[in-house]
Design brief:
The protein is mainly beta. Helices cover 5% and strands 46% of the residues. It contains three helices and 36 strands. The strands form eight sheets. Strands 1, 2, 3, 4, 5, 6, 7, 8 and 9 form a nine-stranded antiparallel beta sheet that branches. Strands 10, 11, 12, 13, 14, 15 and 16 form a seven-stranded mixed beta sheet that branches. A hairpin with a 2-residue loop joins strand 35 (476-478) and strand 36. It starts with 10 loop residues before the first strand and ends with a strand. The relative contact order is 0.09. InterPro entries: CTDL_fold, FA58C, FN3_sf, Galactose-bd-like_sf, Neuropilin_MCO_CoagFactor. Pfam families: F5_F8_type_C. It comes from Trichonephila inaurata madagascariensis.
Length: 487
């Protein structure tokens, strides 16, 4: 295939080879009894339909890939010579993809043009590359326009992409959790199986010994890898990384699950070795981060960039920038739905770093994105007054937050902490449940008091104001706030 470099997600998905069966191909065009012939380089036929099918929007071919696959492009071709010796048509069609046949998305958001008008040869193949590699189960080809005097239009196609399972070394089989399995059918001792597994030169492609993740992976191993007549075999897994005596047995259940059991004296003749995969993954880039109105979560929008392996899950590594990766969190999200996910339980005013990667064992160029839920509070004006009765009164404006959408929220309560300017003076704190006023009594004359205001947002008090005042008789300007002492 000319438009993608070798070794990337560009292998034929099975129309030309017949891997996609005729039962998985359907057509809505009337008087079409050979839709299954629409396969690239098929010399016996093609997908043919009448011109009026285009006007009635019935020139549609739907291909079921049989399972989720990554789709990267499509090739189109006219009919073989035995159907038409010359073929000078221009055909415009759309190629769409869907996971459920309910919601469809158009490839590259534009129509594709099959053009043999200038060459007059039916062997011409036009290739179309997707701007992104997409995950899909169904592909729909919808012919929307043509430039031809012929009453019949005939076309052949191939789809290109790759499986979602990462490729494994020779003799190893890829699993559905980014694992590779090595089945050994002729071993007489567990130590022999363990030695064979550990001594294989696969470090460039595989990681550490691993473990079966869940029942689905057990069934995958049972049904797709193990011979039907094998019900018990040795397991060489991650336990062998730390224990010399790491012998385990897998026992196949009637429902296909594999249950681990301790080794006994029984003699077995087969084993399975399980390792993590280390594939080359496409880079995942964060395109935007938007804060929620309450200020404790963000929505992260991401996209694939470049050519490489893609997965059905991504990992997000999150840490607070000021403390480094000591408090690192690893979060896992599905890539099968919209390319957006949420990170919750964040603190406003804190610088976070987040790094995305395709999956635990998929190598990729990693990019770190930094964000901060900032500017929560507008500046708070505070005033302090010494009253004749020997008390001190604080007043302040309402604290507000502004979300990205412009919504305004006011602080539901406030905290006031104060401290006198004396050695070993303790700090006292009070909670103001309503209003923007606080009164302190009694006072010490000729004493400096410092007050700090806390505003309550997102289940936490945040520093939002400070004022200092010295009790006395003369008006003063301190810390840019106008303070009045009554006499």
């Amino acid at each position: 295939m000319p438009f993608l470099s070798p070794g990337t997600c560009n292998t034929p998905l099975g129309l030309e080879s017949g891997e996609i069966s005729s039962d998985n191909i359907t057509s809505t065009a009337p008087q079409d009894d050979a839709w299954f012939g629409g396969r690239l380089r098929n010399e016996e036929g093609a997908w043919c339909f009448q011109n009026d099918s285009i006007a009635s929007q019935n020139a549609v071919l739907v291909i079921d890939l049989g399972d989720r696959r990554f789709w990267s492009g499509i090739a189109s071709q006219g009919p073989p010579l035995k159907l038409h010796s010359t073929y000078n048509h221009i055909v415009v069609f759309s190629a769409e993809y869907s996971m459920d046949q309910k919601e469809w998305t158009e490839l590259n958001d534009q129509g594709l043009i099959f053009d043999t008008y200038s060459s007059n040869k039916s062997e011409v193949i036009n290739y179309f590359e997707s701007s992104t590699i997409v995950l899909t189960r169904y592909v729909k080809i919808n012919v929307t326009m043509q430039n031809s005097a012929s009453a019949t239009i005939c076309m052949r196609f191939e789809l290109y992409g790759c499986d979602i399972d990462p490729p494994c070394p020779p003799d190893w089989t890829g699993g559905n959790e980014y694992h590779c399995f090595l089945y050994m059918g002729y071993v007489s001792l567990f130590e022999e199986a363990k030695g064979n597994c550990l001594e294989m030169d696969v470090d460039e492609k595989l990681g550490e010994l691993s473990f079966l993740v869940d029942e689905e992976e057990q069934k995958f191993l049972s049904k797709r890898i193990l011979p039907a007549d094998v019900s018990r075999l040795w397991l060489v897994g991650n336990r062998c990384l730390r224990d010399e005596d790491c012998c385990k047995i897998l026992v196949r259940q009637e429902d296909g699950r594999l249950v681990e059991a301790e080794c006994g004296e029984e003699q077995l003749t087969s084993a399975i070795c399980l390792k993590d995969h280390k594939g080359e993954g496409s880079r995942i880039r964060i395109s935007s981060v938007s804060a929620s109105s309450e200020g404790t979560s963000v929505s992260v929008t991401w996209l694939y960039e470049g050519i490489g392996w893609k997965t059905d899950e991504l990992q997000a590594k999150l840490w607070i920038e000021s403390s480094g990766q000591e408090n690192l969190k690893t979060l896992t999200y599905s890539t099968l739905n919209d390319q957006v996910f949420s990170i919750r339980d964040l603190e406003p005013g804190t610088m976070y770093s987040v790094l995305l990667r395709p999956a635990p064992n998929i190598r990729s160029e990693e990019m770190t994105y930094q964000f901060i839920i900032s500017a929560l509070l507008m500046p708070i004006q505070m005033s302090a007054y010494v009253i004749w009765s020997g008390s001190l009164k604080l007043l302040w404006d309402a604290a507000k937050t502004y979300s990205e959408t412009g919504d305004v929220r006011e602080s539901s309560k406030y905290s006031i902490s104060h401290q006198m300017e004396t050695p070993d003076a303790e700090t006292k704190e009070f909670i103001v449940e309503s209003g923007q006023e606080f009164q302190l009594t009694p006072l010490t004359i000729q004493m400096k008091y410092t007050f700090r205001l806390g505003c309550f947002f997102a289940n936490k008090f945040y520093p939002c104001g400070m004022v200092s005042v010295r009790t006395g008789t003369a008006p003063k300007f301190l810390n840019s706030f106008f303070l009045i002492n009554s006499t």
